[in-house]
Amino acid sequence: MKNRIIRWGAASLVLACLVAASGYFYFHTFSPDRGRYPVRGIDVSHHQGPIDWRRVAADDVAFAVIKATEGGDHVDDAFAANLREARAAGLAVGAYHFFTFCRPGADQAKNFISIVPRDQPLLPPVVDVEFGGNCPRRPSPEQLNVELQAFLGPVEAAFGKPAIVYLTDDAADAYAGHIAGRPRWVRSLALRPSHDDWIYWQYHNKGRVDGIVGDVDLNVLQGGQATLAELFAAP
Question: Buried-most residue among 25, 94, 124, 179 (CB within 10 A)?
Answer without folding.
Answer: 94
